[in-house]
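Example record

One chain of 363 residues, shown exactly as stored in the release files.
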Amino acid sequence: MKTVLKISLLMLLLTSSAIMAQQDKKPKIFLITLDGVRWQDVFTGIDTVLLNSPYAQDKNLLKEKFVGNSEEENRTLLMPFFWNTIAKEGQLHGNRNRGSKVNLTNTMAFSYPGYNEILTGKADDVNINSNDKIYNKNITLLELANNSKEYKGKVAAFGSWDVFPFIINDKRSGVPVNAGYMDATGDLNEKEQFLNEIQRQAPVIWESVRLDVFTHHFAKEFIKKNHPELVYISYGETDDFAHGGLFDFYTKSMRNTDALIEDLWNYVQNDSFYKDNTYFIITTDHGRGEGTEVGSKWTGHGTDVAGANQTWIAILGPDVKPTGEANDDQLYTNQIAPTIMGILNLKADSKTMPGKALNLKFP
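Predicted structure tokens for this chain:
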């Protein structure tokens, strides 16, 4: 009898281990956005026109840190993780100098419409035409996943901008969202308690957007504790520094955000739950102007700013063909949501998400 009982317990343990192993093999996705970062900065490095404009304050320091002997060297100095890792192991789309284009399908070219398009896979110029704190009537991929049997309670979102609870509609969707100056809640570890304490002790530059380092570490601590399977992180400093004409801070923030993404990638590649089965899909909500003149001002974006509808996409993950920089392709922001749904093996009809999923394996 005891032998039979031992065998039964052993079989139960083996079955439980097999189930856990099967769950761990399910694909995990980190969707990451950098607010208002232009394709030009990602693919060509620091903008030497803006560097020599009144927008730049400490020109010598910027030149020392971010100017090399070529555009390729400049972009690597600015975003080393993108060019030393993603370009070699994943894909980068949106370098218009090589004929690779990524565009918005919404006509607004500012944040709420851009994030709605990224997260829902569909532009909505009728209802989403401002940055007001209005609960989104559209259903995001985060909500669809959280309402599924496979990913219920395994979805989370973190943002620097305080409008994200409305964009994701946290009340209806049930997706936990930490954004703006919200504190971490629940059973907090020591680091989360410390982050709650200090996030307003650091300089509060904008009341609606906290510094990205806090968003990053709130997200990282949650990830370490809870192991969510679909995570959205939105870094926001870059856009606000640009609006303020602070080219030095915009540039340094891009470099810092690249390092934060690298830190997150290194973490997931050393965590058995995420290692070798996690995708990073990185993009932006809109572009911005190219120069200093009215109609093309780098500080602005929107319908009346040339180039503001031009974006980019970076992809890294286990089944992503490592093609590096793309040539001569046309992609759209509304393709991101159906791509993520496809990776997670969740269904969304073409009316809900009209964009065509990206072919991650194309040469």
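Notes: Residues 7-22 have pLDDT under 50 and may be disordered.
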